[in-house]
Every structure is written in structure tokens, then in C-alpha cells.
Amino acid sequence: MNRTTAFLPEVTFSTFILSLASSALVQLGEVTNPETNRLEQDLRMARHSIDILTMLRQKTERSLDNQEQQMLDSILYELQMKYVIKYKDCSKDTAV
Fold first, then answer.
1. CB 3.0-4.6 Å disulfide test: which of 31, 47, 79, 83 passes with 25?
2. Please, which pLDDT band fits residue 8 given cuts at 50, 70 and 90?
3. In angstroms, rounded to a whole number, what is the distance separating the alpha carbons of residues 27 and 48?
4. What would you measure as the largest C-alpha separation in the chain, in angstroms?
5. What is the 3-state secondary structure (H, E, C) of 1-52?
6. Contact indicator for 81, 27 with CB cutoff of 8 Å
7. What pLDDT digit, counting tens, does each position of 43-90 carry?
8. Are 76 and 50 in contact (CB under 8 A)?
């Protein structure tokens, strides 16, 4: 094992979903971007990340165990609610 892979978690369905969710939180401006140390918001990319998670839920519907399914459903719900709030706030800011 080299230095680059020594600190990476094992790739599982759960870690993959958590990675996508973390990216979505950064894109929503909920979490500091680790590359810039700033809060940044990109709702278009956040919507794309949420769409990927939704597609994964649809494609894996009957193959996940209960814990994985609950985790994915919970993450998707939280991200979708945060997206709606951010989208509404953004719409209010641009309304004349």
C-alpha cells in the first residue's frame, strides 16, 4: 500500500453514497469547499448530484440491504429539502 491509498476508506456502496452526498453539500453551500476553504454554491451541480443519487436509488431498488436503503433514502430526503430551500432563497433574491 502506498502513501496515496493508505488514508482512503474501503470503497463500499455506503462510502460511495456518502462521497456523492458530501459533494452535494459543498455544491449547496452547506459545507466549506475543502479546496478553497470557502462556502460556495452551485445549485446546478447540486441538482446534478442529487439526480445521480436518485438514479442510483432507482437502479439499486431491490438489491440494497435495509441499512443501505435507509441511508440512501435519508440522504436523498435531506439533500432534496436543502436544495428546495436554497432554490427558493435564490429565486427570492433575483425577484424584482
1. 31
2. confident
3. 10
4. 57
5. CCCCCCCCCCCCHHHHHHHHHHHHHHHCCCCCECCCCECCCCHHHHHHHHHH
6. no
7. 999 999 999 999 999 999 899 999 999 999 999 999 999 999 999 988
8. yes
* Residue keyed to cell 441538482: 47
The three cell numbers of residue 48 are: 446534478
User: Would you state the cell numbers that stand for residue 91, as one nine-digit string?
Assistant: 429565486
Q: Can you give the residue ranges of every domain in the chain?
A: 13-94
Residue 35 amino acid letter: E
96, pLDDT greater than 90: no
Residues written for the chain: 96
The more confident residue out of 46 and 10 is 46
